[in-house]
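Hi C.,

You asked whether I'd gotten around to modeling the 337-residue construct. I have! Everything is below, sequence then structure, no commentary in between.
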Amino acid sequence: MKTILTFGVLLVALLTFGQQELQFTQYYNNPYFFNPAAGGMSKTVNVDLGYRKQWIGIEGAPQSLYATVHSEIRFDKRNKVLNEFNNDGDLIYSTPINSVGINKHVVGGRMMADQVGPFRKTSVMASYAYHLRFTEKAMLSLGVSAGWSNMGIVSNKVVLLDQDDAGYDQFLSRNANQSIFDLNAGIALYGENFQLGVSSTQLLKNDLIIDDVATQTQFGRHWFAYGMYNIALPASDVSIEPHLMAQLIENAPLSFNVGARVHFERRYWVNVGYRIQDAITVGAGLNFAKNLRVGYSYDIAIGKVQRPSNFVHELNLGLTFGSNRNIEKELHNDEIL
């Protein structure tokens, strides 16, 4: 029974005083992860995979993994949904710009797995967003996502003082995890070279239940606010993109990120950032192999928390797909002309 009580205290502390949702340094690569209104801004299908490993060298250190996909859809089949993408077949391609001017429907999905020591959380969410023309050069999107989450204990990660703890074995056999239904929502304003967004996750504030006993702890609402603006430098293929993101949950410190990326020909980028009272971040990315892109970031912890390793590694892999070029149609049009 003591073991069960200890796990309960640890889990409640984890959920009450910590960030319950994942925090990624490369939020600027995939804002859709935390805002369902931020998908489908360009007329391409976007797939992202992300992995973050913290506190290198510590057994049971936090590690997070996610996958997202989102795209515009069209109910009128006469109009093409996706733009032709990378028609020239360049190995190092240019990132597509956001599309504006026409209302659109966007659907997407997110899968996530997060583990800290013996505790793990997994979730699957599906989203829908409507993007409407706000001005001639800006769009306003409203999005919502719904899905399933599961919080539980990985039994083979648990180290017991008493290996024959019958109470713990009974606890695992009865209910070592909790499944919940939850909602996320967000809003975004964007143009070809900027985007701003506000979103909230875990809207239902489900109660935490341990061994069929409801606690006074909830899966608290998280609030995210972010922005980025790409500024092209005159007479060059270089642009600078300042960006920021704030993450807030009740009973936890505000997480505030600020930084800037330098883009070269919309094909390569380097980034420097700062998470207030926590870390300095550096990163780089590259588009390659016609439709792949990779981003890597490295966090150097500078906060008050002392760890055997002050370094955090994060990897983002993306795929961008568009419609195929209709060579036959182009040849036919040329013959007519």
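If it helps when you're writing up: The chain has a mean pLDDT of 84.

Thanks,
B.
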